[in-house]
Amino acid sequence: MTLHRIRSPRAGSARSAGRWVSLGAAALVSAAFGLFIPSVAPVAHADCPDAEVTFARGTNEPPGLGRVGDSFVDSLRQQTGGMNIGTYGVNYDASKLQIHTGDGANDVVSHVKSMASSCPNTKIVLGGYSQGADVIDIVAGVPIGGISWGSSLPPELANNVAAVATFGDVADRAGGSLPTLSPLFGSKAIDLCNPDDPICHAGPGNEWSGHTEGYVPVYTTQAAAFVASKLMAGTGQQVPGFGPEIQGYAPRTPGYGPKTPGPQTPGSSPSIHGSVAPDPGLVTAIH
Question: pTM value?
Answer without folding.
Answer: 0.72
